[in-house]
Amino acid sequence: MSGCRDVGMILPEGQLKCVCRSRDQFDGSVALEYRDRHLVRVSIDPQRWTLVYRCPGTGMIWILDYPESSSHGGGNPRLRQLTQMDG
Length: 87
Known about the structure:
This protein is an alpha+beta fold. It contains 1 helix and 5 strands.
């Protein structure tokens, strides 16, 4: 299981580096760690199994969903930036 440290997002002092301007999607454990350590929850849609988050530094909006929700356990989480096509 790789985390944010494995993909170079942890600064030497242990803080998480904002990569919202250079990345547009995370999957699996990295998605959950980036969400937990960096983003602020905005809303929840329990019918679609989606959560909306905002980056406190850039204001960019992120969606956490489970695109393989029919898989056992709900499948891997995906965290992706909201684009104009999504809105």
